[in-house]
Amino acid sequence: LALHPVGHPHRSISLHNFAAQLSTRFDHRGNAEDLDQAIALHREALALRPVGHTDRSSLLNNLALSLSTRFEHRGNAEDLDQAIALHREALALRPVGHTDRSKSLRDLANRLSTRFDHGGNPEDLNESRENLRCALTLLTQHDPHRLRVFMSLAAVNLSFHRSGLDGTGGPGEDTDSLNAAMHHFKAAANFVPGGLLRRLRASLSWTWYAGQHRHGTELESYVTSMQLMDVYMSATASVSSRQSAMKDFPSTLAADAASCALRSGDVCRAVELLEQGRTIIWTQMTRLRMPLDNLQTYSDHAAALMRRFRDLSSLLDRPPASHADGTPSVNVEAADARYRRLVEDWNGVVEEIRKIEGFSRFLLPPMFTDLQEAARDGPIIMLIASNLKSSCDAIIITHTQPPTSIQLPTDFEKLGKLVLELQEAIGKDASPKGNQIALIKALRKVWDDVIHPVVENLGGFAPRGSRIWWCPTSLFNFLPLHAAGEYKANGKSVSQQYISSYTPSLTALMRARRIHDRNPSVPFAAIGQNLPDGASFTLEGVEPELDLVQSLLPRPPTVSFTKITSVDATKSRALCALQDNTWLHFACHGTQNYTDPFNSAFLMRDQPLSLLDITQMDLSRHEFAFLSACETAVGDFATPDEVIHLAAGLQFAGVKSVVGTLWKVDDSTVKRLVEAFYTKLCGDGKMNSRRAARALHQAVFSLVNDKDNPMPLDQRIVFIHIGA
User: Fold this and answer.
1) Of 185, 195, 114, 96, nearest to 149 (Cα)?
2) Within 10 Å of residue 227's Cβ, how many Cβ atoms?
3) 329: which strand partners?
4) Which strands form 522-528's sheet, in the order they lie side by side?
5) Is 388 contained in some domain?
6) Cross-strand pairs, 358
7) Mean pLDDT throughout 228-232?
8) What CA–CA distance (Å, rounded) separates 572 from 576?
9) What's 127's domain CATH number?
10) What's the distance, CA 271 to chain centroid?
11) Which of 120, 310, 368, 564 has the fewest CB atoms within 10 Å, measured from its CB?
12) Which domain holds residue 603?
């Protein structure tokens, strides 16, 4: 700018560039002086472009946008009025036929809508809506900017509805405006050229407002949102980027969708929506591994289709007819035609994938009649915690009968408080003689508010002593459901009546029940690390634990036992053992990484064996894993319905049956539990992973009844069973 003094032909350009950089710095640092200086520079640049200059309309818009930004931060009505006046002048310089007229109409409409929100003048709202309607007619059917106009029209119509104005700006009940708003949200969500991410955000807005107003399109909005989420996550390249992306979206979307379906009385649809909208990251990874799983006859074709699907999905996320900076490309019609071909190709690839056995429902909601197969060996209880509904629900799924829904006597807020109570109670008064009163109080609440209403309804489906599976959502993921009870003399508890297992999803449980040819000799690897990299002390119980496990297993040829420990228990050796052995026992440090859950890990001698490492393996023929490490079944609070922890990772990688831990476990607990568990599991010389849940149940009961050597309550309930 200093090199372009007053009178220089390029001074206006330098003023504009300097103002743009100051605006960017203001966006990042919030220094009001930067914004004020940017506005002053924009004014000077505009003064150098008098009426008749070709750049004047653009400079008018630039100044108007900066003034609007200052209004948003300071609330000075003069800034907003001036911005509107500048937008009007810019619009006048862009008559019908001008390429930027639609943009000027949108800019003016949005400022008028803002002024209505603050001043309440119905004329502003009417003019805003008219301008948006005109802007829409000027855009081609495949112009990506249509999506933004749809969203602005939805917002304006919501303003009409909230203010009680009718379509002409007069007072009245305007249900037509609410219907129009939902129509425009829907149009934005279904507008393919708008790009996947923008469509998904539009659909989530539709879901939010339809839910707030209990509109008739609410359920449809949830279905659309979850379908778009599925496609968007399919186009996201890496596991870690998917997990990061999930944090940007509502964590209770699936549970909210299921609650909506329950309100409409459609319990089967609620189950379908829960299954579609949860464990999305794991579902995507399963799809990527599909050529390795029963697709040997056409694995090359299947793999090629999946690669093509991801590539096309990624291309569809880039709106057509625009450059990287969002400005329109020169040849709009050619870009539109290219985008239409991409959509056709994408649809064609999806249809081809659906022809592959087992993938007929690819990117389609699962059917309840198919999901019911998960309850073949016992009822499944799905627990729904919706943030948008005043109560929580349970759904009991059986193999042959219709599902049963139960409204639970709690809500999302109470559930959150209960989770905190439990976390604070773990470890308190944890000596063998300690009563752990706080923990007992919390477990009683779990019984009263969650488990007891379910158990009362289970009698007709599951006889006493049979197996049941818990499939929790949202905050329910952080409750030890299997340990709930009255905790008093002759009191009731779930463990007295049923053998509890957990499953992250119905599909995961069905996959865990697939039967593979078994080796005549069971390959069993015991992996222990007593002094991992960076540790300040030795885990003294690791070596004795592995020796104990070996002593309790059947002798060769029934079991082929491999022990990897101490300096040999490196990451690479552990990975090889994971691949080569279908039965596994880990004894080591385990860590749950709450910031990046895919970096949760078993700590080896040289470097961690992370969850991300495990997810890249095919363990589809693996039978069982016992995780004798801390926090191996603890999820992530940011994305609870993705169930991202070590135990779930092993199951999704293919292991049928997994025993994991909910929190820190003591060495003395591990020794006693391991001995009791393997005695119950294979004391008769047979190896069957289907016995694991019952063996764990019986082992815990034997420790509870050991009056001579009592164990703290939090250690009796720390282990859980996941899977078949």
Assistant:
1) 185
2) 18
3) none
4) 404-408, 392-397, 380-384, 467-472, 499-502, 719-723, 657-661, 624-628, 583-587, 522-528, 559-564
5) yes
6) none
7) 82
8) 6
9) 1.25.40.10
10) 17
11) 120
12) 509-723
Q: Where are the alpha helices (DSSP H) in 239-318?
A: 239-246, 253-263, 267-277, 280-288, 299-316
| Nearest C-alpha neighbor of 408 from the set 379, 385, 436 | 385
Same domain, 547 and 456: no
What is the rounded distance in angstroms from the CA atom of residue 131 to the CA atom of residue 113?
11
CATH code where residue 485 lies? 3.30.420
Helix/strand/coil percent split, the chain, to 5: 55, 10, 35
Choose among 262, 256, 144: nearest CA to 197. 144
Domain count, the chain: 3
CA angle, 625 then 274 then 412, to 5°? 95
Phi/psi-derived region of residue 644, left when phi > 0, alpha when psi is between -120 and 50, beta in every other case: beta
Residue 635: closest CA among 464, 438, 477 = 477
Question: Chain-centre distance of CA 528, in angstroms?
Answer: 33
Over the chain, what is the mean pLDDT?
87
Q: pLDDT tens digit string along 367-400?
A: 899 999 999 999 999 999 987 766 799 999 999 9
Task: Work out whether strand 499-502 and strand 522-528 pair parallel, antiparallel, or are unpaired.
Answer: unpaired
Distance CA 500, CA 508 (A): 16
- Mapped to the 3 state alphabet, what secondary structure does 135-166 carry? HHHCCCCCCCHHHHHHHHHHHHHHHHHHHCEC
Bridge-based pairing of strands 583-587 and 590-591 is unpaired
Is 394 among the domain residues? yes
Closest residue by Cα to residue 100 from 153, 138, 56, 45: 138
Confidence band, pLDDT 50/70/90 cuts, at residue 555 = very high
Distance between alpha carbon 372 and the CA centroid of its chain, in Å?
A: 23
Q: Which amino acid type is present at position 664? A: K
Task: Give yes or no: residues 546 and 403 share one domain.
Answer: no
Q: Cα–Cα distance between 544 and 671 in angstroms, integer?
A: 9
What amino acid is encoded at 670 in this protein?
V
- As given in the structure block, the two tokens for residue 31 are 């220094």
